[in-house]
Amino acid sequence: MLSPSELEQFAKVCNQIANDVADESGFVPVRGLLERFRATLVARPLLVEGMLASIDTDVASQSPHPWAVLVDSEMYRVSETAIEEERVGHPLAARLRNTVAHELVHSLAFRPSDFGVRLNFDISAEKNKAALVEAIEQQTERFSPLLLWSRKALENLVITHGRALSVDNFTETRRVLGMSREVIISRLNLLPPADELRNLSGLANVAIGIAEWAKGGTALLRKWPLFINFHGNVVPSFLNRLRNQDYLPSTDVFKDTRFAMSGGTSRIVDFEAAANHPNPLPATCMVERSDRKAGSRFLFMVRRVDKAIG
Predict the structure, then answer these.
(1) pTM above the 0.85 mark?
(2) How would you list the strands of the sheet with 281-287, edge to edge?
(3) Average pLDDT per block of 10 residues along the chain, 310 residues long
(4) Is the peptide bond between 45 and the residue preceding it cis, with omega within 30 degrees of 0?
């Protein structure tokens, strides 16, 4: 139902809100998002993790917050003090932050004009409104990372570290900004193809994905989420394979038994990757420090090595 231009408007709104409420470091506090969306966070027993509700008209007329984000009190133990004191380095739980962002994005379907979004159809018609709500729901997970990782914070990370940007930097970013691995990668994938950040050394010729430990100390690579940004479309072949094959065994890709994903202890390995090019692609892979318990997940990062490939 939503055209590409309309989807772009919603994305711009989320980007702008995140930057507007972010602090100097780029951290986006939940209280700032709630205030901007004129919503209140309420914890109570629910059958779901979270949901959006409108507040009774008579009550809303006396309050600047006509919307409520309800979260399950059994799953999320959160106090007003914790919300008020949330700051960079001490965020609320990543899952709670994502749930709140999810519901706030959902609220855009009920009031697009409040945020300057112009639609090419009449939202007052019940049929159109229902279709818009459904369309936004389908796009919620696409837009919510824009609220959680501001452009300001993303630029700080990529520009500050340059080519030295490593998987450890993303792990630290997750910790201080309160984001899941999935949100981190999804946010990178929201960078438009022509975005200047994709061409900076930190993100150029790089892939970032998620793997999980298997029994025996090796790992399985997951197909989603996966950020791939290699210039000239020269991409390691296993990444293209991974787009279509979930749970790809790490031993199919990494043969060096000293590497962690091949059963060894080293978190970094240099390897020659087959690619859509006559010559192998020199590359390096680095994995996040993590408990090797079967089923536990971790980030991996592949970077092309600057050598002539013919």
Answers:
(1) yes
(2) 248-249, 219-229, 206-213, 297-304, 281-287, 268-273
(3) 81 95 97 96 92 71 76 92 97 96 88 77 62 69 92 96 96 97 97 94 97 95 97 92 96 96 96 89 96 95 75
(4) no
